Each structure stands twice: as C-alpha cells, then as structure tokens.
Amino acid sequence: MNTAKQDxxxxxxxxxxxxxxxxxxxxxxVIEKIxxxxxxxxxxxxxxxxxxxxxxxxxxxx
Length: 62
Description:
Elements: H1 4-14, H2 21-44, H3 49-57
C-alpha cells in the first residue's frame, strides 16, 4: 500500500491543472474511504456473494 504522501502526489499528477481545492478534497476523501475499507476488510474479513445474498433476502421481498 502506498503512503498517504505517495497517494497525494499521484492524485495531483492525475488531476487537471484547473481543478479546484474542492475537487482535490473530494478525491482525497475518496482515497481515504477506500483505504479504510481495505483495512476493515483485512481486519474483519469479507463476505461471500452467497452470504450477502442470504442476508439481503431477509430484507427484500420477491
């Protein structure tokens, strides 16, 4: 996994020169959410497609 600094440098290289600070903030927010999601998956594990479908079937009607 890249460091936060590497992610920011990579992001700034990819964004257009006329992007706003709001654009940068949004992209940093998305990067952080993805990092946290990966960390949560590594820590707590993930569910199989079948398990997700089983759990959702209790909430949905056919």
